[in-house]
Task: structure prediction
Amino acid sequence: MAPLTGAQIKTAYAEAMKLYARKDANEALKRLRTLALDCPHVAEPPYQIGRILTEKLLAGAAIPYLERAAEIKPGETAIWMAWSDAVALGAGPEEERSFLDALKKAPIPVKTKLLLQNRFGSSRRSSHPVTGGAALPDLQRMIAMIEAGDAGGAEAMASRLLARHPGSAVAANILATAQAALGKHSAAHGNYLRALKLDPNYAEAHDNMGRLLFDANRKEEAVRHFSRALSLAPGLQSALINFGSALISLGNAGAAVTLLKRALAAQPDLELVHRALGNAHTRLRNYALAETHLLRALELTDAPEARTIALLAQAQSRQGKDDEAAENFERALAIDPDEPTAVVGKAVLLQTLGRFDEAQVLFRRGFELDPLKGDNYRQFMSSYKAKPGDPLIETIKGHYQDERLDDQNRMNMGYALAKAMEDMKEDDEVFRYLDEANALMKKSYSYDIALRLREVHNTKQAMKDVDWLGRKIEGASACAPIFVTGLPRSGTTLVEQIISSHSQVEGGGELGELTKQAQQLIIRKEGLASVKDMPDDVIAALGRNFEEYLAPRFPGAPHVSDKSIQSYMYIGLIKLALPQSRIVVVRRDPRDNLYSMYKNRFPEGTHLYTYDQRDLVTFYGTFLEMLDFWRERVPDWFYEVQYEDLVSNPEEETRKLIAACGLEWEDACLNFHENKRKVETLSVFQVRQPISKASVQGWKRFEKGLKPMLDALREGGYVTD
Result:
């Protein structure tokens, strides 16, 4: 393709910025990323990408773009200012050092360079606010009074001091803090504003204002103040903790971890930081690490809080430590029977164990304790069938209109209501809630389907020209796991439930470990690693590491099933590393499959393509592309199950499935719904029921709402009717 002319670049850039001005940041990012790829020597696209990502609270992702912009245009002060902001808000120690090293060589004004260097120097932990003539001992005395619990005395003294020194931003901030402690929120808000008017660069006042707004459920305003505080003082400890905690509640735990790790480096034994990190890592599915932080948090206090114990129980439950989790939920509830995290956490544990009636009682108690917590309703609805006239649904509808509801809770309630409308056959109402929920998810996360296209291209490049059938790996593991893979919502949970009902199989669920290691093995920071050139011991280590991962989790199990969705990407590599393994790929009519993805919310940060109907179809095409790649090379290395065939003719298809797994037939595999194993996927309710054809061609009820997806499927030649 011919390179873009200067005029074309200007036009494309202007169009992207118009989209951004119209608040369509995601589409602007897509256009700018394309422009950055097509015009790698133009600084404006990566600069604007960095700015937008920072504004979207994705500062860590912004840093590489701003670094690239500075390489292209090193004398541009605005780029260095934006890079500095991103580092303050989203960098770890390594990225900060890289920025400061680059800054030393930057051809920008000395005054600007010193300003940016000082931001990360001795002043990084606090700002230098305007005292307005107020004496330091008086200011320190008032702070000590608040810390000692005498907020009333501090308020009175601060009022008198501010009357004498009306230009003191510090006195206004202390007065506001005392008033906030006394519950005088309106007065506190006014005095924080006064402090910031007197000194707009007062980091501590921004942080305190953010805390006040966050507690008032004005979260979007709060994060603006938290981010401003950290931009001014990147090491301000309270801002790191407050902003990190806010990001967790807003569904951005990855960014929170970076900030909280910085706080932990400054104070390694701060219980509050360990608790927040435990919460963040649980949301990121780093459950073992979450447990470590939460156990440390409990060690650091003589009076453990119920919420910390409940968070620990959640992390333990996700690791299969159900007895410990149940014990800790009870321990938390003994301390505080009304702790929402404990009440709902126990409900979710019971739900995954198939104890739906017991779970329902606790969920309903959770609704009373935290009526605007949307995720509680969403999780509840996964094992509940709404009926016309259901008073709970009317209650959720009322909450959905509450002006206090933030985007995260509205989005979760939207999924819950869409499910309820489908249950009650109010089909015209389903997409009213579903489209808004997905739009809010897209707003929260920046995703470009082009990233998936590059991933598939790179994976195929790394796997090409390998003598798959002729190559034998010396020292390969004899471990024989059974991988069940396919697109989400294609029936993989059902298939794993059938297989794990066999006496020789322990159901592992979505382990994710091998696929993560396989991806890291071939797609590296320094470039692609070819499997053809990969030494035997490296491939063998992949299998042995997985065997070591399974051993303590499933001791003595002859076979363990692993339902990691992305396994189909690495079929050849998996079989080289684990030649005794079996791989089952599940297929489903794309119309039902993609609709089922579109109507569900997945764990934080995963399957981000599912919130756009046309992106779903593009992703589906890449799934087929990878299957074709492996079918051409190793057709006998995996077994394909068609979901519709399985539910239409369960006994015949189940017998073929069990044989393909190398197992002797057992009747228990037909009674999979009686399997009491834990299930943590969105299919938690369905797999406890006998096999059913009810969901086959379910998409037909919603052709109008699914038009973008159906059109794209026809355009791609994936369906013909």
Q: What stands out?
A: The chain has three domains: 6-120, 259-444, 450-715. The beta strands are 482-486, 505-507, 523-524, 527-528, 559-562, 582-587, 639-642. The first helix runs from residue 6 to 21. The chain has a mean pLDDT of 91.
